[in-house]
Amino acid sequence: MSIHDIPLRTLSGEPSSLGALAGKALLVVNVASKCGLTPQYQGLERLQERYAAQGFSVVGFPCNQFAGQEPGTAEEIATFCSTTYGVTFPLFEKVEVNGPSRHPLYAELTSFADLDGAAGDVQWNFEKFLLAPSGEVVARFRPRTEPEDEAVVKAIESVLP
Description:
Layout: E1 8-9, E2 15-16, E3 25-31, H1 40-51, E4 56-62, H2 74-85, H3 104-109, E5 128-131, E6 137-141, H4 150-159
């Protein structure tokens, strides 16, 4: 099964998959509304605006596994992201990224190593995985790496379709 075929649900609960975005470079991020890193939404949205027309999308997955920093309902998350940060990129249902209930998407993503060669569990909110248009994971950036960090931008630009 391709990463594009893994069943997902949109934030509003509709069945979906990353296949709906096949052919685009994707930056998959586990997000949270009440985290010290939450202002990264600004950089993620700027990346979305800067590269969307070139075949790129940020894809957000709310996660409440880190200190309960995403406690909201789907509606509360959508409202927060829209009104606070003007988020236009797709948001999917709240998922678990680590542990025995890890979502199958994150089971695939976490097998990819970061720049230091470390694979495994997501460290915290706002860990970023870059997928080539084919669905191949090509880069992993840990949570404190800002979305507009030069390494992230260069990696995105290198896989734009």
